[in-house]
Each structure stands twice: as structure tokens, then as C-alpha cells.
Write a structure and sequence with these properties.
By secondary structure, the protein is mainly beta. It is built from no helices and twelve strands.
């Protein structure tokens, strides 16, 4: 699912970040569980931690705007900064070249090209396609 896509909360999976279309402040929430036709969620604070002590529950037909996946599955598009060290991914235009994250900082991400074992650096907000975790 692409970022900023309007959808129903019932179509999200565990770990997805979203905001309610009815929320003028666009507060970020995360889906924490799915049960029957209900979805549990919690509000995310500025430090990417859950703000509420207990999860809240809402019907699966509530309108939301999808923001991003926090639990990546193979084929998900993401920012390189969202990947962990050891994750394997590819760039959108170069799906045959596997890259591995070997180091991260706020300003750059160190990558290893698996085909020729060369190291290079890229900006953390570069978009990639997650393939798998090497661990």
C-alpha cells in the first residue's frame, strides 16, 4: 500500500501507522492487533512510543489514511532509514541488485552491493523495496 492512501482501518495489518480522516490534528496511531471485525490501536508520541497505557478498539470500517508499515514484509516499499542493519533490499529501478544495510547514521546509510561486494553511501530518505532480513 502506498503512503497517504485513504482506506478502512480493517484493511491495515499489525504495525501499520495511520491517522483518522476525521482528525484535524492528524495524530499518528499504530494498529496493535486485529480481532474479528475490530482493530486495536494506540497513539504514537514524538519518541515513537505508545502514548496510551491500554489499546483502544474501533470497528474495521472506520476511515483512515495509511502512513507506513513498521513491520516490513517482502515487497514493501520503504525509506532506507526504516531498515535495520543486516536487512536486504533493492532500489525500485534496479530490482536485480540486492543491497544490504551495513551501517546507519542520521546523515547517511552505508550499503553493501551483494553482487560485487562494493560499499557505498546513500541518503536515509532514499526509497527502497524490502526483500528480507539476513538474520
Amino acid at each position: 500500500m502506498q503512503r497517504h492512501t485513504p482506506t478502512n482501518i480493517g484493511r491495515l495489518r499489525k504495525g501499520d501507522r495511520f491517522y483518522f480522516t476525521s482528525d484535524r490534528k492528524k495524530s499518528v496511531h499504530e494498529a496493535t492487533g486485529l480481532r474479528n471485525d475490530k482493530v486495536k490501536y494506540n497513539k504514537i508520541n514524538a519518541f515513537s512510543k505508545f502514548q496510551w497505557l491500554w489499546d483502544r478498539e474501533v470497528n474495521g470500517n472506520k476511515e483512515v489514511v495509511f502512513l507506513r508499515h513498521t513491520i516490513l514484509q517482502s515487497g514493501d516499499q520503504c525509506f532506507i532509514q526504516d531498515l535495520n542493519i543486516g536487512d536486504i533490499f533493492c532500489l525500485p529501478g534496479h530490482k536485480e541488485t540486492e543491497l544490504e544495510v551495513v551501517g546507519k547514521s542520521e546523515k547517511e546509510v552505508k550499503l553493501l552491493n551483494k553482487s560485487n561486494n562494493s560499499i557505498f553511501y546513500t541518503h536515509p530518505l532514499t526509497t527502497g523495496i524490502f526483500i528480507k532480513t539476513s538474520k
